[in-house]
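Final report, closing paragraph on structural work. Over the funding period we assembled a curated collection of sequence-structure pairs, and we close with a single example.
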Amino acid sequence: MTATDQPAPHQPQADPDRGDLIPFYQALRAWFAISLQTFGGPAGQIAVMQRALVEEKRWIGQQRFNHALSYCMLLPGPEAQQLAIYTGWLLNGTRGGLAAGTLFVLPGVVALLALSALYVGFGTTAAVTGLFAGLAPAVVAIVAQAVWRVGRRSLTHPLLVGLAVASFAALAVFQVPFPVVIVAAGAAGWLIARRRPGVFKPATHGSGDGGPAPLIPDDALHRERPSRRRAVRILLIGLLLWAAPVAAVAVLTGTGSVFTTQGLFFSGTALVTFGGAYAVLAYVAQQAVQTYGWLSAGEMVRGLALAETTPGPLIMVVQFVAFLGAYRDPGSLDPWVAALLGALLTTWVTFVPCFLFIFLGAPYIERLRGNRHVSAALSGITAAVVGVIANLALYFAEHTLFTTVDDHTFGLLHFAVPDFATFRPIALGIALVAITLIFKARWSVLRTLGICAGLGLAAALVGASGI
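Its predicted structure, as stored:
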């Protein structure tokens, strides 16, 4: 029996006086259930929402769901969480968007906090060391899969392939800052579309425009007319909420404290996270490891592995980065208090902008979505993201398969060259297992991580070297 053949669920009882098209308690239950299933990156998270909201509950139609996703793809930040905020806003107004977006990330925040504390407290024990030694090579395979998936979908023309290669070279060889690469890619996409309009094909998301008939007609979904007064009000409230915690820690701990530095840095990364978390993680890793010294390159890989095992957006890894950085530079605070403060502050400045972008821009979605210049710039950024993620894969591979990686500079060229005497054969073996499981056997990310963690633990317990 297909989704369209199933008996229709009962029509939800609306509460129009409060802007609810479905009872708010039902929406809370639905979003909490969705939040516990959001493993496997944005594709899996979007699929979970589509199944729950479009196919099972039929609260929103496939066309409107795809329409919202197209808008979210234009924004920096985790598109899956922004899609949750947007659909929550459609169904229950502002409080619906707030509830959906908060519940979407809450389980991941709690889980990664616990795992970060476990790593800090017991990371030097043989068992925990072995687990992370198995997870890190698996991450190399996972990032390689991301390169393949994004590239297959995005690089539909030789010019786009060239843009991806140029982005990779700019980052890996010339050390061009990540935000510069993103801005240049957007400008290149706009120019290519003007000179060669046939290069960019229309983007498609999810399944076809059909799907089961929604119980709530599109015309009945929550909508607000755009106005300057509304935009100014939301912008002021959003910027105040975004900046207030950073200003507070700057006053209380000083402008040079690790908390102020993390608040400002991750506020900036929240504005350039186009193309998913993988695209910005190379920049985060470079700054967190080399510039600020919050953690080592190997720990960055382990943090990504932890984020892969928890529900919610993958960009949650920044919470692990901030936890370790604040723990090791607590100032006058207890290290554990500092770690918790740094992690929560970073989470706040990373995800609050998502709410601001949706509440501010949703009324303008039709106008923005029909803008060909914006779509062309996004397509250029998406093509460049392939090169950005490939650079991330190279970075992780070098620091996972070799104990020591040295930096060499020749004029404008900058290379990271591994010390082959520090090669880790066990890590390579686990990486090959992960590649086989993901690409050949088509196992899920979570299942692959479990197998690789077990292999790393077994190698550590028998005292194997080279992990």
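Residues 108-201+225-461 form one domain. Residues 79-122 form the longest helix (44 residues). We thank the funder for supporting this effort.
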